[in-house]
Structure formats: C-alpha cells, structure tokens
Amino acid sequence: MAESMPSRAPRRTDKTPPAPAIQVAEKPVNVLVVGVGGQGVIMVSKVLATLCQRQGYQVKQSEVHGMAKRGGSVFSHVRFGETVYSPTIPLGEADVLVALEWAEGLRWLSYLKPETGIFIADTQQIVPPFACRNRQHGAGSGYARETVADVIAQVANCYAINAGQIAQELGNSKAGNTMLLGMMSTTLDFPADDWREAIRMFAPPKAIDINMQAFERGRDWVETHDPADLDPNQGGDQPAPIVEVMHEAEFELPVINRAWCKRCDICVKFCPERCLSLDEEQIAVLHAPEKCTLCRICERLCPDFAIDLKYKH
Amino acid sequence: MTSQTSSPALDSNAGDRAPRDEVNRPEILPLMGNEAIARGAWEAGVRVAAAYPGTPSTEIMESLARFPAEDVKAEWATNEKVALDVAIGASFSGARALTSMKHVGLNVAADALMSQTYIGVNGGLVLVVCDDPGIHSSQNEQDTRIYGQLAMVPVLEPSDAQEALDFTRLAFDLSERFDTPVIVRGTTRLSHTRSLVQIGERTEKPSLGFNENPQKNVMIPGHARLRHSALFKREEQLRQYFEESDLIRWEQGSQPIGIVTLSTAYTYVKELLPQAHVLKLGASYPLPENKLREFCDSVERVIVVEELEPIVENEMKLMGLNVEGKSLFPREGEFSTDVIRAGFEKAGILPASRSRPELFVQAMPRPPLLCAGCPHTGAYMALRALDARVSGDIGCYTLAAVEPLKAIDTTVAMGSSIANATGMALTGTETRPIVATIGDSTFLHAGIPPLINAVYNQVNITVVLLDNHITAMTGGQDHPGTGRNLRGEAVHKVDYEDLIRSLGITWIKKIDAYNMGNVYQYLREATLHKGVAVVIMDRPCVLDPVKIKGSSFRVNQEACTGCQTCMNLGCPSLSWTDELFEGHRKVKIDESSCIGCSLCAQVSSTNCILPVEAFETNG
Predict the structure, then answer these.
(1) CA-based R_g, chain B, Å
(2) CA-based nearest distance B124→chain A, Å
(3) How far apart are the CA of A259 and the nearest CA of chain B, in angstroms?
(4) pTM of the predicted model, to two decimals?
(5) Do B338 and A104 touch (CB under 8 A)?
(6) Which of residues 254 through 293 in chain B touch A, CB cutoff 8 A?
C-alpha cells in the first residue's frame, strides 16, 4: 500500500501552487466523467449533479444508454451554472475530466481545457479482448501505451493514482470511484460536508464507512501530492507500460502429410485462425497460410501425426 | 377522488414511492427527458399507454408504469404497430392514450398511423417518437418529421426535459382540440439528459365513451375520401394555431442575424449566439408561414439550424424565403456545440476558433462486446465453424457480426432474418448452409409471419431462436415469452415449441446454449434437414432480470500454449498475461467478471481451463 500511496511526495511548495478551485462564473462549469461500462460512471455523475443542484445551480447531466452494460466506452457530461443550455461539453471545454479507467481518460483528453483543465484519473487498466487480437509471433497487447508521465507533460493539471487498488486495500475496490470524488472535491468550490452528504445519499448503506474513508484519502492525496514531483519510473501510481516482445518465429508453416490424413476434420475445427480446410478429396490443406500464427494446435491435436511444424534451426 | 391530485415521486433513484401528502404539491425534480415525457402524459390524464422497448425511448413506458395502475394502464406490446393500435382502441373508447417508440418503430406502426390520421381521435392520442441522430444504438438515423408531413399530423419538438413534460401534456389537448393524432418528437440527447423540471398535478380525464360515428371510424373508400378533405382543413387550422401559439417563440436579439431552430439544436445555438434573434419552433409541422415571413423580414440574414433532414429549410424555401441551412450544417450525425460552431464559422458569423495544441495520445478502440457468459456466444462460435451463411436480426447478438466471432452476414430490421434467409434459399445459388438467427423478443415482435412463410414456401433453412428469456438489448424488459408483464405480474408464458410445431415445423430441438457439443451437433443436424428446422438456444441473459454470477474458471498457466482458441469467443473476462509460450501470449481470466459459463473450457484445445475449485483442491 505504501508503494501506491505516494505519501513520500513532499507537501506542495510555493513553486507549485495547487490548481485554484474552479469558480462558477458566467459560463457553466463542465465536468466530463468517463470509464468502462459497469464501472459506475453514471453514479459518479449523479452524485456530482445532485450536489450542484443542492448548491442552487441549474444542472444538465447527459449520457447515452444502450451500450453501457456491454463493456464499451461510457461517458457522462455534467454541466452546471446559473444558466445551462447545451447538455454536452464541447471539445477543449471541460474544466475537469474524471476517468475511472486509464485508457478511457486518454480517449477523452482532448475535451480538457488546454490551459486550466484538471485531469483526475484512476490508473487501473481494463484490457479489452479487442486489444488482444494481434496473433503474430511475439506481438504485444494493443492497450494504450501512454504513461502518467506522458500525460503530465501534456495537460495543465494531472492527478493520477491507482484508486481501485487503494480502495481494495480499504475493503472494497468499487470505492475507488469515491476516492476520485474526493480528489475532485478539492477542485470545485463546494463545502466538503456537502460532498460527504451527497456521497452518503448514493453509497450502499453497508459501504458508507469505506466510501467515507476513500473520499478522505482522495482529498488528502491531492493536498499532499505534488504533480511536478512525481517520478514516473517509481511507485505504483502509474500504469505499467506493456512490454512488447517481438522475436523471430522459431517454426515454419505446417506441412500436412496427405498420405497419413484420415479426413477427421479435427484440425480444421480447432484452428483458432480458421486457416485450414478440407479439399475436394476431404484432405486437410492450409488454405490461408498468411493467417497462420504457428500456434501448433493442429500439430498437437492431429491423431495421426500428419501435421508437422519444423524447427527453423 | 384522491388520485386526481396525487403525484407520486418520479425520482428514478428512489425505488419506493414517497407518501402521497408529501409529493402532492408542485415541486422541482431532476428528471431525464424520458421521465419528463412520462410525467407529462400522466399529468395530462393518460389512461392507456403501450409500447415496445427501443433505445432511446424505453424509459418512457418504464416510468409510466411507476404511476398507480388505477391511473394509467401501461403495458409492453409485442411490437410498435400493436402498441399504436392498442392506443388507437383506447382513443376510440374515449380515453387519453399514448404510445412511445424509437424512430424505426414508427416504420412498423406507420400503417396504422396513416389510416388513423384520417379518422382522428376521440380521446387524445399521442405518439412519442425518439430519433437517434448519430446512430448511437440503431440501424439508421431517419428523421421522424417526414412522417409528420406524410401523415399530416402535428409534430412537437421539445428541446429539454421541462419542455418534454410541458409539450407532452399540451399534445393531448391539441389532439382533442384538432381531432388529430399528435407526434412528440424526441432525440437521444433529449431522452437521456437529466435536468431540473417543474412538475405539476394530474388532471383526471374521465373516458368520453365510444363515439358512434361509422363515417369517421370505419375507413372504407367512401368514408376515406371525405376524411382526406378534412385533413387539409385540419392542417390549415393547426397552421393558424401555431401562428399565435407560445410554442413558436421569438427571442429578440441585438445582432442582425436570425436563427430558426428547434429541438435540442436550440440549446447549442443559445450557447454560441446568445445575442442573435432566435425563432424557436416548438412544432415543426405545420409551419407558421406568416410568423416565419415576419421573422425573415426583420433580420438581414436567416439561418436554419436543424438536426438531420432540411425539412424546415426546404419548406421555407418553398415559401420563397431566402434562408441558409444545410450548406453550413451536416445532414447526418448528431449535432453538438462543436458541429454548430463549425457551421457558424463557415458562415462567417463566428471567428475561426484558435487551434488547440495537438495531444500525443492514441485512443484505443473499445467496442461493445457480448457479456462474459452471454448465451449467444456459443451459437455463433458453432455457426462460424459450420461455415454457415447467417442472416442476423436486431438485438445484442448483432455484436457477433464483428471480430472475433464475425459470424453474421446480414442485419436489416426487426424480424428480417427469417425472410432474408428464405430469399437466399430461393435463389438456389448459396452453397453454404443458410441459417437465420433471431432473439426471443424479436421473434415475437416480427418473426412469426416470416416463419409461417418459410414453411409455406418450402425452403431449406435453419432458424436459431436465441431464447435468453428477456428483451436484453434495451436493458431487460419482459415480453410474452417471459411470463411477466410490465408491472411484473405473472401472465401466460408463450411456449415456443408448441407455437412453432403448430406452424407445421417438425424438426425442433431445444438445447442448452452452454453445451458446446450439443450446440455444434444439433446445428449441424438442423442444417442437413430438408425443410425448415428450428433450434431453440435456451439460457437466461446473464444481466437481466437477475445478474448471474457463478464460480469462475482459471487458466492453468503451466498448460496454456497461447493457442488463442478461447480468445475467439471474444469474452471480456479473457485477456493476456505478460508471459509467452513459443511466441504466443498466454491467457488469463478475470475472476471477478467470469460467471462460470465454461464455454472457454469447452473450446480449449489443451484442456488448460478449469474451475477455480480444481486449483484449490490440488493445492
């Protein structure tokens, strides 16, 4: 836990003043909450919207339903102020971007105000199967490669931490969202007690204690954390870059011994790339050699040892 | 009557109703557009409401069902035409009635609407139709306003949740006053934006009773000719009404530019040009010609800002007015402040926005997926292995059309799969086995007539009924095959096997969708059968009505060869470890999301995936 809680970071110095709390002026304040379906994006934005409404502001909260439960990208726009017209936030106009998942935060980064925007992110990674599609020999995952350091270099204010993991240490990984709310609470000019009350309204009764702890952890972390001091190569508060290992394939394409093939079809059915088929004589052939990833499943499963992948050396 | 002034809380966060006395007085609530529409209908005294679920309209009927059953009979219908016909019947009997649907739902219901517009109404009749600009969750982005012109019925255009409530309430009055069905048109952005709404109380509208008037109620040619003439009078009366109505709002500005706009596009215009003259159209059909002329005469330049089709723009051009519109704004996609800003910049009204610093970040695609343990997965895995020509239908399972399952060749509209397969079979040129796949709710919606047709015309096709016991795509709604109605009451449950057998189909197999061996074997047998064969895949949805979570599976890392066979399922619980075997990534299972369906273990070629218990007992 000490690894992921950078209490080692010194208190802010005068050189790096904290981002001043956003004041509601003539224009509405824009908060974009993003994440993956099932993470609680809508719940986080509801807490915020309820809080803003209780402060007497007009609030619009907008999202798109339908794909939310199916592991897709989810977002919710919250806008509040004296008068709010548009339900959605224009590009480059978000005052705060709250990301419940690292790659989702990166996706919406262009919505942040370039000069003053505040990026609050959970660095936990949810790797979609889509990122695990490159079957070539030694290929790496397609998950986002940007580290916290990369992002700090590009946004005005960045608070990134593995909130999910810290919440798990507190007893419930889902309270990571509340830790992010705690971090956000330092950036908006509302009394802390009002935040606590809004969270109490939405947290499940059994989990109120953990959520309150997570909220305080988030607040404390921003108070004590100095973004300029973050060493991106140490600590657990940035996503581990995924190592890409590319080395030369050790095998040659499968060779099928036509005399030994007994037309059982097993290799055709099990080939993950579907590059084998039966020819007119019902004998197995490699019809799409360019798709073959040399996984050797056909070789291992052939009951008649009719398929062979030769070592290159 | 107590129910006349009752107004139960419509806060979707609060599952249980607040005591009546407390919520009796008018107050301000945060409501989603769809909840506001339901509230408006309830306040207007609606007594009968019916719908088939469809994003983004689904929550309207769900919200209506939270009001007391003695106030409004709210129900799921088998499809949109049935729902509209139910509402029409209620209107005939003198009650206020509502039906709600997504834009493509109106295609299904259009047949009834085109006659009903001739008949008019007895009790007020309102159709809420929600368009989906940007195609967030649909098969097209058609503009419902064209139906308004075609049917010559007024189309109201709320721009936020408050107007959604007010306009829906007003729609019932207009319907009765002008003897016409009324369309309230929403968009995804209206339906799913939550904002503060001043609510009111219910005005009870007792039934007017059946109006005995065959000349008006029975559309035979002799009657229809007379009623057609009446439509033109009605259109003119509505036009006169809109000339004076508050629905058409002229907001004075200080710039010599005039913007004509409507629906959610209005909010983007106000955001960008607070100083312009704005004519906000609360109704897009029929248009108030005099008001539009007056507006155009008062400013130097007029721009029409409307999402999707240039309907107002073209109408104004027909009036001989000099307006701009689609030369500046796209005819496709969802509007946003950014899109409208680009149009105003093109028009020279706004200065070109400064370029933003470029970000060095690459967004990773994260397309939606079939859930971990989705019972549809196995069927498509098998269909792909069988190299079938698959005509798909509308539902979650359209997600099987993309990598890695990639097992659906066509998707058209609700219920199309079976007839599409019939057509493919009739050409006689298809060498692969022809299979139609259709979900249970879609089958009851529009799948039965094409199935009768396939038997009637003696084609060789296989129909896979993906029965997950729910309408899943829209968030888990009941239907006649679940044995529960919208209010959760037990009702008769459709027996698919009996139903299908009665159509003359002899080859029917009901199988467990999690048994890969059976799925593969019976699909193969079905495709070899001469005639129509039906395979019913039987397994409940893992999300609704109850979230299913069984003991999970785990990959034995010693045995995993990184063959990727399990990854072909596209299961979101499966991802890669950092370890390689002969250059291929080994696979791991996220045990918090794995529900234990065992499909990956069944397809695994090296038997390396086992229940977690197997690891624990072995130490």
Answers:
(1) 27
(2) 30
(3) 24
(4) 0.90
(5) no
(6) 264, 266-268, 270-271
A277-288 as b/e: b if 16+ CB within 10 A: ebeeeebbbbee
Q: Average pLDDT in the B281-289 region? A: 96
pLDDT tens digits, B341-357: 999 999 999 999 877 77
Q: Which range among A292-301, B10-19, B152-161, B288-297 shows the weakest confidence by mean pLDDT?
A: B10-19
Note whether A154 contacts B264, CB cutoff 8 Å. Answer: no
Mutant choice from B35, B259, B361 vs A, greatest count of A C-beta within 10 A: B361
> Which residues of chain B lie closer than 8 angstroms to A100, CB-CB?
none
Q: How far apart are CA B338 and CA B76, in angstroms?
A: 38
The DSSP call for residue B490 is: B
Residue ranges, CATH 3.30.70, chain B:
553-617
Tell if the CB–CB gap between A294 and B474 is shorter than 8 Å. Answer: no
User: Which CATH code is given to the segment(s) B553-617?
Assistant: 3.30.70
Q: What percent of chain B has pLDDT over 70?
A: 95
Identify the residue with better confidence: A238 or A198.
A198
Q: Residue window 93-152, chain A: list those with CB within 8 Å of chain B.
A: 93, 103-104, 106-107, 109-110, 114, 127-133, 135, 137-139, 141-146, 150-151
* Side-chain-facing half-sphere of B592: CA atoms under 13 Å: 7
CA distance A61 to chain B (A): 5
What number does CATH give the domain B2-243? 3.40.50.970
CA pair distance B229, B210, nearest whole angstrom: 24
**Residue A68's pLDDT is what?**
53
A21: nearest Cα among A155, A150, A269, A192: A192
CB contacts of B271 in chain A (<8 Å) are 85-86
Residues of each domain in chain B carrying CATH 3.40.50.970: 2-243, 376-538
Which segments of chain B belong to CATH 3.40.50.920?
A: 248-346
Taking the CA of residue A103 and the nearest CA in chain B, the distance in Å comes to 7
Residue B371 near chain A (CB below 8 Å): yes
CATH topology of domain B248-346: Rossmann fold (3.40.50)
What distance separates the 2 farthest-apart alpha carbons in chain B? Answer: 86
Return residues 91-130 of B near A (CB < 8 Å).
none
> How far does A295 lie from chain B, in Å, by closest CA?
5
Closest partner residue to B192 (CB to CB) among A65, A67, A269 is A65
Contact check, Cβ <8 Å, B30/A60:
no
Give the Cα separation of A80 and A48 in Å (integer). Answer: 10
Question: Candidates 3.40.50.1820, 3.40.1000.10, 1.20.58.100, 3.40.50.970; correct CATH number of B376-538?
Answer: 3.40.50.970
Domains contained in chain A, CATH given: 29-229 (3.40.920.10), 255-308 (3.30.70.20)
Residue A177, φ and ψ in degrees, nearest 5:
-60, -40
pLDDT at A247: 62
Residues in Cβ contact with B609 at an 8 Å cutoff, skipping those fewer than 6 apart: B553, B554, B555, B556, B566, B589, B600, B601
**Dist CA A226 CA A248 (whole Å):** 44
> Tens of pLDDT along B48-78?
999 999 999 999 999 999 999 999 999 999 9
A17 confidence band (pLDDT: 50, 70, 90): very low
**Structural contact between residues A167 and A176, judged by C-beta atoms closer than 8 angstroms:** yes
pLDDT tier at B20, thresholds 50, 70, 90: very low
The two three-digit tokens of residue B513, written as one number: 């969708």
Rounded-to-integer distance, Cα B265 and Cα B274, Å: 14
Residues of chain B contacting A93 with CB distance shorter than 8 Å: 337
CB–CB contact B605 A135 (8 Å): no
Contact B367 A72 (CB under 8 A): yes
